[in-house]
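Crash report, auto-generated. Payload:
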Amino acid sequence: DTGVSQNPRHKITKRGQNVTFRCDPISEHNRLYWYRQTLGQGPEFLTYFQNEAQLEKSRLLSDRFSAERPKGSFSTLEIQRTEQGDSAMYLCASSLARTGGGTDTQYFGPGTRLTVL
Amino acid sequence: AQKVTQAQTEISVVEKEDVTLDCVYETRDTTYYLFWYKQPPSGELVFLIRRNSFDEQNEISGRYSWNFQKSTSSFNFTITASQVVDSAVYFCALSEPMEYGNKLVFGAGTILRVKS
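Recovered output after restart:
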């Protein structure tokens, strides 16, 4: 059973450049989440998708950030005009949301560590 | 707003000692879910347990046990007979029910160092 995968694992870029990260969720999972984690902190929610629909975006997600999940499978997170404050670990998680209430468990990928010089 | 507090920034123990990681949460919801995740040096968050607000039974899984007390809004995690491989950052998290998105609110984490 393949887990959540993320690429690249590390990205170093210069301020002002655009970067794109990819997340491949567990195959049958219909929900996909993006989180950001800075040093010494817990992950913070950025956005999530149910299938291909982006249902919620955090205030942390500025206009320079955009996420897509075009066919309800993999997702991309793009950051335009990167700033040094964007340096962080970007984590992707997926889950299987079932009807009838309750909750689903999110399974995380290894993350993409972004360094903006 | 939901909030999770892990007051212990870092804990160091010697192998075979028992250790308890504290987690206190705040929420106005009557239905909510609590989680613990482990983040080893490799960086990937590993799911350990989830608990819903209606189930206050303690749970034991091998050397791990969890104590959920709604009266004190706490969900503490105990490792019995700690091992070096337990060294990691442990996160407690809180979520809304699924129909509200289920996004996780994490605490700042507790670094556990187990020395041989």
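Post-recovery validation: Chain A touches chain B through 30 residues (CB under 8 Å).
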